[in-house]
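User: Some background: our group keeps a shared notebook of sequences we're curious about, and every so often someone picks one and asks for a predicted structure to add to the entry. Today it's my turn. The entry only has the sequence so far, pasted here. Could you supply the structure so I can complete it?
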Amino acid sequence: MIAGILLCCAPFLGIREQVVIAQAWVAQGRFAQVLPLLEAARAAAARTNAPEYAMVLNETGGVYFELGRLRDALAAHEEALRVLHQRGAVATPETAVTLNNLGAVYIKLNLLHKAEDTLAEAALMREQTHDELGRAQTLLNLGSVYRAEHAWAKAEGMFRESLAIRERILEPDDREIAIAANNLGVLLRDVGRLNEAESYMLRALSIRRASVPPHQPLLASALNNLGVLYTSLGRLNEAEQCLAEAVSIARAALPADHPNLAAYMNSYAFLLRKMNRKKEADALHGAALAARQRYDRANSLGLTVDARQSFK
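Assistant: Of course. Here's the predicted structure to add to the notebook entry:
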């Protein structure tokens, strides 16, 4: 009911107030519900060329990103960068935020060379403006680029530095620490350091259990990663508990064609096959494949394969 009241009243709120409300909803994982509010703020800011226009575009792009709508996310962040450059904001904290967001979209689109260049520029800006937490976020994204390229040592260095910065500045139970610990855990799992991976993943899951609502997609991500690890370790009952919960949360919180939901269903299907539950596995894998195909069609940009993706 409160959400409905706020949406009805959105035209009477200032743009900055609408963004503040939107940010609170985003923190709760309410991405689909918050989108109309942000679109209203975006239209108002565009109409008046408001000072907050780039900020609204970045927030809107971030929600599109979380919903798996990459074309819309890319357009919003590119427009934000254009607005900032038009206003002479070439090397500012807001420009660094925009570049970081663009880099994250490029990673999802497998445009790793563009992602690396964009994120390196963002990291330099954040270092120049002494934005340590922002730099930690950008290092995390750069680490994701190197992980995708199988440059394991470089990725681990980025993830560890990002985590160290957050541990130095934030409280031990801050959700940003969970994000960094989770990424490091996934990398360690990738390279076969499974016991180390488990400790970081459990830390991430513990923080997320305590700090985010039970329907938050971030919780589903932590559960899926831990479930995949337990599958690798042969701890199948523990894996099923994690993966079943991950799929349940993602089904409730994400669009039906979201790539993360498809990934979690595939993880669970793989486990079910190992447990000789072939019929369930086939049904889940089929649903995941259909979801991924819908997502790929919706997000096709007509792009050629990135030159750095030959290892795929």
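Suggested note for the entry: The mean pLDDT is 88. The CA atoms of residues 178 and 206 lie 8 Å apart.
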